[in-house]
Amino acid sequence: MTDIPFDEKLLHGRLRSAKSWLLWVGIIMVGLGIAAIVWPAFSTLVATLYVGWMLLLFGVAALFGSFSIHGTGPFFGALLLALLSIAAGVFLLANPVGGEAALTLVLAFIFMFQGASELVLALDVRPFAGWVAMLISGIITIVLALLIVAEWPGISLVVLGVLVGANFISTGIGYIAISRALKPLV
């Protein structure tokens, strides 16, 4: 079975005009990814504190926003979400090591669902180019989820940093590859 080539029309003119931007963002992401893998405990801590701050800031904004919602049910739902976000953010900021363990377990479950979704997508787009890569990605993602769960909680101190680093490297390489594949505007 032959793969159907990627349609040139998908590479929109705006993407072409951002070619050098994509290249530099890709190079920076690869550099940050390498640093995250070299210092995984530090990058895990940074990722945990970042998520903690984001949850706390979202929770505060959602708390103020909840008072503008009319109706008892929607108000209390928004208020509960805001308070839970604040509590999770405070927990991650006050107890980063416990937060690393919690985030690692959440990440494993996210990987499991992502892997399953990628397998379904791969089988859905099977006659098109790239379906085998998506299938392999789904399998790898599920295996990673199982490895994280098998080694949890001991792996929590480094796994987030390594995975963030690997994600930055793969995304950076993707940006670099796209920027190099774009044909100049004629």
How would you describe the overall organization of this protein?
The protein is an all-alpha fold. The protein has one domain (15-181). The protein has helices spanning 13-17, 19-38, 40-66, 72-94, 96-124, 131-151, 159-181. Helix 2 (19-38) crosses helix 3, helix 2 runs antiparallel to helix 7 and helix 4 (72-94) crosses helix 5 (96-124).
Question: Care to give the gist of this entry?
Answer:
Helices cover 80% and strands 0% of the residues.
Radius of gyration: 20 Å
The amount of helix comes to over 70%
Q: Tell me the total number of β-strands.
A: 0
**Measured distance between first and last alpha carbons:** 34 Å
Spell out the helices and strands N to C. Answer: HHHHHHH
Record the SSE blueprint.
Blueprint: H1 13-17, H2 19-38, H3 40-66, H4 72-94, H5 96-124, H6 131-151, H7 159-181
Helix pairs in contact: 2-3, 2-7, 3-4, 3-5, 3-7, 4-5, 5-6
Salient structural properties:
186 residues, mainly alpha, globular
